[in-house]
Amino acid sequence: MAETIRLLKEADVQCLVFEKSVGEIQRILAFIEHRLATTDGQRNLRSSALARHLLTNRFTPSDIRQVSALLRMKIQEQGFVIAPMPSRQKLTTAGEMKLAQRLAPADRTADGMDARVQHDVDCVVAILTPCSTCACMLNSWV
Question: How many CB atoms lie within 10 A of CB 34?
């Protein structure tokens, strides 16, 4: 990942992180912070590379709170611009339901779209939408 970011910067590509994604990361961190506070919560963390990393490295709830507090600064230190999601345009929103179906977990039990899938769909649509809040076209970033 670091190498990819370096190559993009060398090519003068403006890298963005959506404000909505920062919010999602902070909500995930708050959930993890709560789970790390108890042994039962740690046991019930969904198995993932992130959970394994945090548990193996003995992260505490206060460590996670610090990560969350410094998140925006760390993102900007890496050369990313935090930008709002552009307004939706009909031209770029065709096929969202098909995309959501492909992104949904195979074991999905509910008929509705879960928040993680909706976030991913929103971000894909935003990447394909011209950005009016900065001097770029997001789709030129892809």
Answer: 12
- Averaged over successive runs of 10 residues, the pLDDT of the chain (142 residues) comes to 84 87 93 93 88 93 97 93 79 68 70 71 71 47 40
How many helices (DSSP H) and strands (DSSP E) are in the chain? 7, 2
> Which of 56-62's residues contact partners 24+ apart within 8 Å by CB, and which partners?
60/36, 61/33, 61/34, 61/36, 61/37
Measured N-to-C along each axis, helices 61-77 and 19-36 cross at an angle, to the nearest 10 degrees, of 160
**Neighbour tally for 134: CB within 10 Å:** 13
CB 129 within 8 A of CB 138: yes
Query: What are the domain boundaries of the chain?
Result: 19-80, 84-142
What is the distance between the alpha carbons of residues 69 and 30, in angstroms, rounded to a whole number?
11
Strands of 31-93 (E only): list them: 81-83
Q: Which two tokens stand for residue 142?
A: 């892809």
For the entire predicted model, the pTM comes to 0.66
Using alpha carbons only, what angle is made at residue 22 by residues 21 and 25, rounded to the nearest 5 degrees?
85
Q: Which residues pair with 3 in a beta bridge?
A: none
Token reading at 132 = 């009016």
